[in-house]
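Translate structure to sequence.
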């Protein structure tokens, strides 16, 4: 689970960087990368929820 949290943190940092580039500099490509990161974060959060529920049962 710790490994998953580290991946989530890394992806969130990537999202933040790209989103800021889009907003601050108007970089359209950064916006595309931010949306891709957001999609990956969504998948990882679902995995985190699944793992968390299993850990709670034990």
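Result:
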């Amino acid at each position: 689970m710790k490994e998953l949290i580290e991946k989530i943190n890394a992806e969130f940092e990537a999202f933040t960087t790209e989103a800021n580039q889009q907003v601050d500099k108007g970089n359209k490509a950064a916006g595309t990368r931010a949306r891709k990161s957001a999609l990956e974060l969504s998948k990882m959060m679902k995995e985190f929820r699944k793992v968390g529920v299993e850990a709670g049962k034990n």
